Amino acid sequence: MTIFPLPAFQDNYIWIIQDKDSSTIWAVDPGDADVVLNYCHEYNQTLAGILITHHHKDHTGGVSKLKQHFACHVYGPNHLTDLVTTPVFNGDQVSVFDNAFQVIATPGHTLDHLCYFCSQGPNVLFSGDTLFKGGCGRIMEGTPKQMLAAMTRIMSLPDDTLIYGTHEYTLANYRFALSLEPNNKALLHANRANQAKRANNQPTLPTKLSLEKKTNPFLRTHIKALKRKAAQQLNENPSDNSVVAFSQVRRAKDSFC
Hints:
Layout: E1 2-8, E2 12-18, E3 24-28, H1 33-43, E4 46-51, H2 57-60, H3 63-70, E5 73-76, E6 86-87, E7 93-96, E8 99-105, E9 114-118, E10 124-128, E11 131-132, E12 135-136, H4 144-155, E13 162-165, H5 170-180, H6 185-199, E14 207-208, H7 209-215, H8 224-233, H9 242-254
Parallel strand pairs: 3-4, 4-5, 5-6, 10-13
Antiparallel strand pairs: 1-2, 2-3, 7-8, 8-9, 9-10, 11-12, 13-14
């Protein structure tokens, strides 16, 4: 199984799953149909299936056109009745080539958000807008409690899990992370390495869960010094309540310049 990104819009990645013995591909969150169609035309590929993580248009905008063109399977949240051919729920499995992806419900960014985890070969997580390199999605429909639960669920995956988020937000995320942990050596090293990647127009994704545990503030809201810095940015007192502390870190990021 090979996974690579097709850039779309300003900072989206449409992840393509390819098998060496197949002339078909799968797409994750194809917000722009033409990006996928152009790739298929250039490389003589057929789209066999689509995975949707959540309903936002930059993740679903190309699904209808692609479905009409290829008559492909579409897996995603059950309420997307005009797009999804097979609704999936937490704990379900989706077969992509010879690989089984487990569906993990991660409400928070949106209430319908799903991630897709595969433990065959390298561990892989398509995290949509739940977890990014160095950050997490805004809480737009869910609650801090739900988003913290999503972070906790992802943290329980194997440390070598490769995480494929859908936005190139890494450097902006690192600027905020460094405001909370300016002396975090792993974070400083990762920031330098990813600045070099972006200078060469290279994607910073995927990331590895082991790195995120060392550098991502939303997986580190249990750390007292980090919580204190976030609360200071909000002119609030730090909280010992895990949900409140997570909310403070998220709100600090929302207002970070």
